[in-house]
Every structure is written in structure tokens, then in C-alpha cells.
């Protein structure tokens, strides 16, 4: 929890309480279902929560923005972002029902009114979104083909709205068809060595073709 406060010092009391509760909620679920890998659950705040919030270091979601999290699994990056941005609407989807059950129970426990969670395949999502976020679901070309029709076409900010994907390692090959994508190194924002190879890829709507 200290690492969240270090990098996001202006949280409200409610947000602090919600982030703190994630510790118990995810440990409790993980004893029943393997929603977070056993080796990572003890680093929940760094490897999952702070990593998810890396998107917020790159992009500020304005109130009223509508965000889709594709393949959210246990709720990453969607849940940490929804706590940070209570005025933004989040739609979290995954094809696996038991993962959505975990997400729904976390949403209920935190009383997150800005989140809807649903068992759904990315390709079948209906809606127009300002941003599509994701982590560790598939390669960039497939991801873009799944979601490109879901980004609202009438955007005020076509150079801003679009895809924000959390990725690691060398992305040269994966991004060769997307020369306009921008890679942001999370090591520029967070000190822990976990972030050394971690990036946020931003592909604005204007270049999602
Ligand atoms: C490696 S997990 C990552 C989960 C989460 N994003 C995270 O970073 O902790 C990949 C998730 O993507 C989901 N997934 C894979 N293909 C999908 C699709 N076509 N539509 C929706 N979800 C999908 C899987 O069910 C799985 O929960």
C-alpha cells in the first residue's frame, strides 16, 4: 500500500480505504480460485495495482470518459484505475465467468459505482469507448483487430483517445505495423526493478486503422 501512496500522494480517504481493502479481498479470493499467480500475490501492490496505475501516469481520464478493459482477469488494470478515477465509467470484460465473479465481488465490496463487469468475448463487445485498456491478453495486431471498431469515432481528441496497452520487453516486431504507437517506459515513473522492462503502449484512434 505504501508504494501506491508514494506515487499517488493525493488520494482521498475513500480511495486509500479502497486500495487498502484490495489486499484482503484478493488474498481471500486467491485461496479459493487462482485468480493471481501464487508467486505474484505477495507483490500485489507493485506487480498488479501499481502496474495497472502506470496507465494513469501516461494518460489522465477526464470525468465522463468511458473506458473498456479487455481480458481484465481478476480486474487489472480496470479495478485500480476505477478507484483512481471515480468519475470515469469502466466496463471490464473477460471470457472466463469465474474471473468476472471475482471482479464483481471486489466491485461490490468497494461499492465502485463506476464499474460494470461482464463475461464477454472482446470481439462481441457492444459500445463506443474513449479508451480501451488492457494487460497481458494477446499480441498488438490481434488486439487492434478485436477492438478497433469499438473506439468512438467522434472524438474531440483523436490524438489522445484510443488504446493504452500494458506490455513488457522488446516490442519492435509487435509494433512494426503501428509506427505511430508511442511506448512509455514505466521505469521513468516507478523505481522498483519490476518496472525496468514494463511499458505502456499508446495507440491513438487516429492511427488505429
Ligand atoms: C494473462 S490473463 C491477464 C488478465 C489481466 N488483464 C491481468 O493483467 O492480470 C489474460 C486474460 O484475457 C482473457 N481473454 C483472452 N482472450 C480474450 C477475449 N477474446 N476476450 C476477452 N477476454 C479474453 C483471458 O480469459 C484471461 O483472463
UniProtKB/TrEMBL annotation:
Gene Ontology biological process terms in this record: methylation
Alphabetical UniProt keywords: Cytoplasm, Methyltransferase, rRNA processing, S-adenosyl-L-methionine, Transferase
Record flagged with keyword Metal-binding: no
Predominant place of localization: cytoplasm
InterPro entries linked: rRNA_ssu_MeTfrase_G, SAM-dependent_MTases_sf
Residue sites binding S-adenosyl-L-methionine per the record: 71, 76, 122-123, 135
GO molecular function, one term: methyltransferase activity
Family the entry assigns: Belongs to the methyltransferase superfamily. RNA methyltransferase RsmG family.
HAMAP family referenced in this protein's UniProt entry, alphabetically: 16SrRNA_methyltr_G
Protein name, as recorded: Ribosomal RNA small subunit methyltransferase G
Species in which this protein is naturally found: Flavobacterium frigidarium
